[in-house]
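Now read the record:
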Amino acid sequence: TAGAIGGIAASLIRVPTEVVKQRMQTRQFASAPDAVRLIVSREGFKGLYAGYGSFLLRDLPFDAIQFCIYEQLRIVSLEMAAVPKCYGNTRETRKFLGMHKML
């Protein structure tokens, strides 16, 4: 859920920039400031958030999955960092790494 909440917060910035970018790609406007000014004057502030619902449906699942993967990788990296910094083939190191039965 944290990933989805973060995605919603980020979408408040991403959606207007997507709207402006898409309309500039269709050559409706010459520059980004002109696009913002004319969209707001013609359609109101809501015009900058055209397609907001479909944007959320597209991006929220990705944001949630990405956050979960990030958290799991962070946990694994923290566990890996906990490995003792000894370089010898000592019994304590093998036991810590779970290899004491193999050697």
Observations:
- The CA atoms of residues 3 and 63 lie 5 Å apart.
- The mean pLDDT is 82.
